[in-house]
Each structure stands twice: as C-alpha cells, then as structure tokens.
Design goal:
The protein is α+β, with helices and mostly antiparallel strands. Helix content is 32%, strand content 30%. It contains three helices and twelve strands, in the order ααββαββββββββββ. Strands 1-2-5-4-3-12 form a six-stranded antiparallel β-barrel. The protein has a six-stranded antiparallel sheet with strand order 8-7-6-9-10-11, with no helix packed on it. Strand 3 and strand 4 form a beta hairpin. The protein is elongated, with a radius of gyration of 40 Å.
Length: 268
C-alpha cells in the first residue's frame, strides 16, 4: 500500500488537510484541558484564601472574646472596689485593700492569700491577728484574721478554719448574750459556750450572726448565716440542728480589707 501510494502519488484533499485537522483537534483538546486546569487552580486559590480568611476571623473572634471576658471581669472588680470604698470607715483602723490571689479551703484548714500592694514594713509588723473583712453592700462582713504577712502577701485564717474562735451574737436579739463560733474546716462552723439559756431557743434558719463585743472584730459585723443540716431540711429543723455558714462563699471573694489597728496617737 505504501509502495502504491508512493508510485502513483495520488492527490487527495483529505490527505492534504489531515495534519491541520489533527493539529486543530490536539489544540482543542489541550485548550479544553488547560481551561479546566486553570479553573481548578483558580478555585483552589479561592478556597485557600477563604480558609485563611476564616482562620484569621476565628483568631480575631477569640481575641475579642478574651477582651470581652477581661472587660467583664474588670467591671466586676470595679464594682467590688467601689463597694469597698463606699462603706463607712472606722477611725481606729488603717484600711489595707487586698486582692485575693489564692485560696486553700479544706477540712483541715481554711486560708486566703491576699496581695496588698505597697505595704509599709512598719504596718506589716502590726498585722498578725488583725481582722479581715469584705464588702457586701450595704454592710461589712467578717472574713477572718491575719496569720502572717510577708512582703506584699498576707495569709488570712478564715472563720471556718479549725483554729478560728470568735464571739458572735444574734443580729436581732443581742441582749440574749453571745456564743463562741468555732471553725470546723472548709465552709463549716459550730456554736459553743452559749452564754444565755434562751439564746438557742431564739435561733432560726437564715438568722445572721454578728460579731460580739468581746471579739477582735468591730462589733456588729455579719459573721455567719444559720442554715439547717441537710438531714433536717425535709423533716423540719430544731435549734440544735442549725449550723453557721459563711454569709458569702469564700470562693467568691475577689477583694478583702485588712483592718490594721492604729496606735492611740494615730487615731483621728
């Protein structure tokens, strides 16, 4: 067949244009595949750009969320500090405002560790035994007493600490005398040494116990709230089933105030 074609050399239009047809088909095929590849690459670039934009927006959202939480915390702290400064002061104490940095509220001990900025070393020496209070507008509440102070960190023994002893009386019947409130660990306290025989009979749930005249605290500060034992919640309560509990959970105290005692010549 090849020899015949070479010998006779026919002239066919189809053979003349066959290379052009073939070249055009190849070009069309390559162009179509190239267009598809370009579209795929463009779509991939757009997808990658969208992913990067999405990750950036998520990162910005996390930052904004952290800023909102921080601002919310600052609002709460400002409210707490504002309530501290708004309450009336007593002239026989120097007020040291401290931030609670850590807590250790267990069955064996109950302590707060408070940071007081710019504390004078001379004042630091007078702090052991000083009463510590907090603000629950419109009143002060008793929290505990200073155990020791090192640099700007003060260790506070809470009223629920087993080594704590404080005289308390009923807020509405102070004339019935007082009792000794003893810490029992964690957030528990117990009453002992009732001075008046009818004191116990006048107790009832939610009664506020306040600091008595014989304690180191200023008299009349809220120290505890009476609550019935869990076993008596449904069957009713009796006065001997009531137990003192903190007015405010110690875990919720962001700030406290140390009442550093002043000498007679420093009082105004």
């Amino acid at each position: 067949m090849a020899a015949l074609l070479y010998w006779f050399q026919p002239v066919w239009p189809a053979l003349r244009f066959a290379p052009a047809f073939l070249e055009g088909g190849v070009r069309d095929w390559v162009g179509e595949r190239g267009a598809r590849m370009a579209d795929w690459k463009g779509a991939r670039r757009k997808l990658e750009a969208s992913r990067r934009e999405n990750e950036q927006l998520r990162a910005e959202l996390l930052v904004k969320d952290a800023e909102v939480r921080m601002l919310s915390l600052q609002v709460l702290e400002n409210d707490a500090l504002r309530s501290l400064f708004s309450l009336s002061k007593r002239p026989d104490y120097r007020y040291l405002y401290g931030e609670v940095r850590s807590r250790k509220v267990r069955s064996t001990d109950a302590r707060l560790f408070v940071r007081v900025a710019g504390m004078d070393p001379a004042i630091r020496e007078t702090l052991p035994g000083a009463p510590v209070v907090a603000a629950v507008p419109p009143q002060w509440i008793a929290v505990g007493q200073v155990v020791q102070a090192k640099e700007s960190l003060v260790e506070v023994m809470l009223l629920s600490d087993p080594r704590s002893r404080i005289g308390v009386t009923a807020v509405d019947t102070p004339s019935l005398g007082s009792a000794l409130m003893i810490g029992a660990g964690a957030d528990r306290m117990v009453l002992d040494f009732v001075a008046h025989p009818t004191f116990v009979k006048k107790l009832y749930p939610d009664l506020i116990l306040v600091t008595g005249p014989e304690s180191r605290f200023p008299q009349g500060l809220a120290a505890a709230r009476l609550a019935a034992d869990q076993g008596h919640a449904e069957s009713g309560w009796t006065p001997d089933a009531l137990r003192p509990r903190p007015v405010v959970p110690y875990e919720e105290l962001p700030f406290v105030v140390i009442l550093a005692p002043l000498r007679e010549d420093q009082r105004w």
